[in-house]
C-alpha cells in the first residue's frame, strides 16, 4: 500500500488509508518506537466491517515531515493531540473512532478529553494516557523505575548521541523488553525501523522524554492545550481500555478507571506486551468494532 499525504499548518502528514472512502472514520495511532505497521493486520479487518481506517505516521516518523525548518521539533503530548485534530480537519472528518497505544494512544486521549464532540469513541492501550507533568518527579516503585531506564538516558546528551548513532538498536532493545512473549522476526522489525530514519526522529523523541519531566519548555503554540491537560481532565467518550498482561514497561492500568465517565470497559490481552495491535491484531480489531457498537447504543 502506498502512503498518502495531507498538509496541515505544521506538518505534511503521511498516512495509510484502508477501506472505502465513504466508510465510517477510524483513526489509529502508533507509539514509540513503532510505526504504522503496528496496524498492518488490524486495519484491514476493521475496514472489512465498513470502516475507513486511517493510520498516520506521527511527527518525526516515516514520511511525515515538518513544513518549516524553524518549527520546534516538539514531542510533547499537546503537540501529538493537536496533530491528530489537524489531521482530521485536513481530511474533513468531523467525528471518528480514535484509538492507539503509547504516543498514539496519548494523542487519542488528548482529543477525546478536550474535544469530545469530535470523537465517536476511544480504544486506548494503557487507558488514561495523559501525562501528569506536575507530578512527574514523584518516584514510582523500584521495578517501575527500572523499566523507565531509557527515559532517564534520554535526559542527557549521552542519551541523545546514543539514539542518534543506533536508532534501530535502541528500538529493538525496547521491543524485546516491552513485549517478552512476542516472537517478531527480522523482517517485521525492519519494516518499522525504516521509519526511525526520519530526520526529525531524534529531536522529537528527545524533546518528548524531557518535556514530560518538565526538563525543557514546550512549544508556545501548544501552551493552551498543555494548560488544560494539567487539570487531568476526565474522558467522557465511550471507551475500551486495553492492557497486555506481559507488558514490560507498563504494569497495568486498572486504577485508571476513575478517569473515565460514561461507558467504560477494560480488557486485558493474555500474554501480550506493549505493542498491543501488532501482537493481538484480531483482538484489537474486535475491540474497535465492539466500541463502535457500544457508542451507537
Q: Can you walk through the features of this model?
A:
With about 300 residues, the protein is an alpha/beta fold. The protein has one domain (about 5-295): Alpha/Beta hydrolase fold, catalytic domain (Rossmann fold). The protein has twelve helices and nine strands. Strands 1, 2, 3, 4, 5, 6, 7, 8 and 9 form a nine-stranded mixed sheet that branches. Strand 1 and strand 2 (about 10-20) form a beta hairpin. Helix 6 packs across helix 7 (about 165-180). The longest helix is centred in the last third of the chain and has 16 residues, at about 280-295. It is globular, with a radius of gyration of 17 Å. It starts with a strand and ends with a helix. The mean pLDDT is about 100.
Characteristic terms for this protein:
single chain; 297 residues; alpha/beta; Rossmann fold; nine-stranded mixed beta sheet; 12 helices; 9 strands; 38% helix; globular
Oligomer: single chain
Give the overall silhouette.
globular
> In percent terms, what proportion of residues is strand?
15-25%
Tally of domains:
1
Radius of gyration, whole Å: 17 Å
Q: Main sheet?
A: 9 strands, mixed
What is the CATH third-level topology name?
Rossmann fold
CATH architecture: 3-Layer(aba) Sandwich
Q: What average pLDDT do the residues reach?
A: 98
Indicate the CATH class.
Alpha Beta
What's the helix count? 12
Structural class: alpha/beta
One letter per element, helices H and strands E, the order comes to: EEEHEEHEHEHHHHHHHEEHH
- Kindly state the percentage of residues in helix: 25-40%
How many angstroms does the end-to-end distance come to? Answer: 34 Å
User: Regions with pLDDT < 50 over 5+ consecutive residues?
Assistant: none
